[in-house]
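Weekly structure sync - notes
Attendees: PM, LS, DV (DV joined late)
Agenda: review two folding runs queued last week.

Item 1: First target. Sequence and structure tokens pasted below for the record.
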Amino acid sequence: MLDGLKGGVNAEYPKYLKEKGKVEIKSFFDRLGKSDLDSQLRLIDEHKRKIDFVYETAKNDKKKKGELGYKLSLMAGIALLIILA
């Protein structure tokens, strides 16, 4: 993934990455190495918090949608049993 980012603006990003994620990654790498140590550590911490937030949000969405999928398939199975009976 990082090899593709070396291409700059025209870099190829993974297909699953949304536009906002592409902007965040580009912003991070554009700012990396251009200031003092304290600023770099704050930059890394800031992006780590953003990544953690996105991860937790995605995890919660997956849990909700996974439960919904299970319930819908269970209801479809029951409906099919009723129709065939």
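Item 2: Second target, run right after the first with the same settings.
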Amino acid sequence: MVLVAFGAPDPGASQQPPYGPLTWEEGSPLQRLALAPPFERADPVGAGVVSADLWLGYSNIFEQDSSATHQVFLDTERLLTALTVRWGAAERVELGGRVTLETTGGGILDGFVHWYHEALGFGQANRDRFPQDGYSQELSDGGPDLLLDIPRRTLGVEDVQVFGTWLLARGADGRGALSLRGTLRAPVATNTVGTERADGALLALARVPAGAWYLHGMLGAGAVRASPELDGVLRSWSGFFGVAVERSLGAHVAAVAQVQLASPLLAGFDHRELDWPASNLVLGLAGAWREGWSWDASFQEDVPADTPAIDFTLSVRVSRRWR
């Protein structure tokens, strides 16, 4: 539906404001040992404006593999609930905070995922060797030493973030923008192997208009400071890249397709599913209704499948602005 919509003509679409990119962030437990920044708009909210966002992302995660260097078994479904508040401290400066809650368990979608993998010929990647709707989040060094062991959680706080966005440039008509965003994260989630440490990232966010189309971009890097017990297998920094193409469909809605990549956090395993970049394709719709309200809804799939990225995520965001 989204791909067909990209070609749908609309004479007035070139006059519509941007609604993308889609709100999404890397969801792999192996990648969330450090900050996984979301792909967001390049614009601060504006002087004196207060904005509140609610984002929900429901993911199905399965990864099972073993070798001389590691044993990994990730089998869970997870709901992330992110609450974000922003304040326009000045016309070009935005300050904000974010709390992410996490719920994990065996889930209910394994049967459906097994069916559609069979129907589309994707293969099961060892899913059919284990009971459906099970739970595990474990990674070991190939022997008795655990590197990752995350218990089930119900609405537990995963992390708390504070951030600031500075608008560097804006197009004469307001449709293009370039900004810098800095984020600091205090992790709260429990990995029984060791306590994670605070980290942060710096991102450049951009938007370029072209008639009824918009091109969104994200590029940045962050520090990796997980528990000291993992220092031997973790890189010291991570990189992020994202590009999104948006096509206006009418006065209040747009179709968006985006690709997001994150450099691997783990090193030394010599295995694509652990120490290769995580890459994802995200498709969805974004728009607005009534004054001050906006939304987006999306579906993510890991492409290619043999990377640290998770299988898929269904997500939705609702935002409200006040002046």
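Discussion on item 2: The longest strand covers residues 71-90.
Action: LS to circulate a short write-up before next sync.
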